[in-house]
Amino acid sequence: MSSQHIIDQLQPYDFDRLAHKEKDGRRRLRLIALAHLKDGKSYTEVAAALRVTRHAVMRWVQWFSAGGVARLAGLPHDWSTASALPKHRRKRFARRSSNCRANAAAVGCAVKTYASY
């Protein structure tokens, strides 16, 4: 993707205004980066000004090109909370896993993943 094509994609947006309204710090930084790029600065200049890597700036531009301003929220962090057991299943899992450990030698307890609880 040429730099002129990227600048053309950025033209319709007022990134300064969007950044001023944004509450999330990471997303605000990404909007500021795009504002600098829109002003004609290079990836390296933007990265130095914001104290991030040039590759981070390039990744944000890719995200913007793929999904617009909404995509600048970043990647979903599914691994942090989405994989945790719901509260109503945690006790059952704890009880069954402790019973399994206690009886494993005598009974030959089968191991289950906690997703099956």
3D architecture notes:
It is built from 7 helices and no strands. With 117 residues, it is mainly alpha-helical. The chain folds into 2 domains: 71 residues, no CATH class; 33 residues. 11% of the residues are buried. The model has no long low-confidence stretch (mean pLDDT 78).
Main attributes of the structure:
mainly alpha; 65% helix; 2 domains; 117 residues
Please tell me the total number of domains. 2
Shape: elongated
**Structural class of the secondary elements?**
mainly alpha
- SSE pattern: HHHHHHH
Query: Can you tell me the residue ranges where pLDDT is under 50 for at least 5 consecutive residues?
Result: none
The count of helical stretches stands at 7
Taking the alpha carbons of the first and last residues, their distance comes to 48 Å
| Secondary structure tally: strands | 0
Radius of gyration, Cα only, in angstroms? 24 Å
Main sheet summary: none
- Let me know the average pLDDT: 78
Percent range of helical residues: 55-70%
Strand content: under 5%
